[in-house]
Amino acid sequence: MIYELYYWPSIQGRGEFVRLALEEAGAAYVDVARESGTGALMRVLDNSKIACPPFAPPFLKAGKLVIGQTANILLFLGDRHGLAPSGEAGRLWAHQLQLTVADFLQEIHDTHHPIASGLYYEDQRDEARRRAADFLAARAPKYLDYFEGILRRNKKGSAYLLGARRSYPDLSLFQIVAGLRYAFPRAMAGLEKRHPRIAALHDKVAARPRIAAYLASDRRIAFNEQGIFRHYPELDTGG
Amino acid sequence: MIYELYYWPSIQGRGEFVRLALEEAGAAYVDVARESGTGALMRVLDNSKIACPPFAPPFLKAGKLVIGQTANILLFLGDRHGLAPSGEAGRLWAHQLQLTVADFLQEIHDTHHPIASGLYYEDQRDEARRRAADFLAARAPKYLDYFEGILRRNKKGSAYLLGARRSYPDLSLFQIVAGLRYAFPRAMAGLEKRHPRIAALHDKVAARPRIAAYLASDRRIAFNEQGIFRHYPELDTGG
In which order are the strands placed within the sheet that holds A59-62? Predict the structure, then answer.
């Protein structure tokens, strides 16, 4: 079976968390809107006959299944491709970490869009300055402290979040680090020094053969100012 | 086994979505911080030896498991107590809807805290006015249209979101409606007229025997201005 991933073709965005899992799994997939344009994506979103319609991209077609919500797609792929523990406790723990990554990501998004996702950044820049300053001073350290603590107490000493093997939350935390480095290079340089295990996890994931090949390919879209991680120097305070 | 729910004792907040599921399931549980104070909650949050620590409340102790993240707890309870379909497709669909409820809830929260969750409302009231206006004009209708559409296309015609039976996303959507009625009575009166199936779902859930008994009990905390759903008349524009 060939998966069909539906996501905006010009940004990494939330779709990237799914792309990383598909790539690490070595799964066959089509990145539909990149190959056929956004029309194919909009036709699904606008199709009132789909039994289980997604609220928004990304969504994944897997045979007859249409699965929406990033963390839900990863829950599914984790089971199918050994990207998460198979026991109930491990599955829930992986998903719990992923949902915390999702919360972190939403707060990263809101640094540049604190008022309305439908408005331009330029129309909420003053508010973004306030929100980004709080994010870098209070929220990012809180999330990073949490994940650093998880890595510290991993009994297997694997440098991954769960036990001895890589799992989908590792891939997502890699993406968070890569994105924060792009969006907030000054602040992140300081934060990384205080979170060495997270920085090491980033490097370890980046060096995995399938991930390294993906990152070097043209399938990896470059970060840009239409995505979730945006580099606006005026927001990159602290450090 | 008696579950232990850990959540702030003076607000409904995210814990309420778990309380509703436990109540509907008829499960035995202790609402720990309500019975023993927040010290018991903080001792878990601050315990650096827990293998799977939660980032934040709510979390649920189920025997040896400590499960965090609201949607993750509901995924677990859905399986254990028949609060979701048992097949893979139905489980994923229920969870997808729950994650969309979670996104909706976060946007509701941010209407009064658009800049920083650690600041008082009064310190971000101007920004809250802008964000709430956009929320009521654009975001709330988008989410409500989505759920209304799900109810409309339910082939079983059950008035519930999934198939013929109630499931945990129904309980959560009930809570969203109850909360929006409290926070934005003017705007919600207008929105409900355009979303009759969602209003009917609210009433149907509220009338379920265990839910009705719960809502009438002192276990149900009243809405207040420390929770997620806050009534600030200056934000309740539109309608």
Answer: A29-31, A3-6, A59-62, A65-68
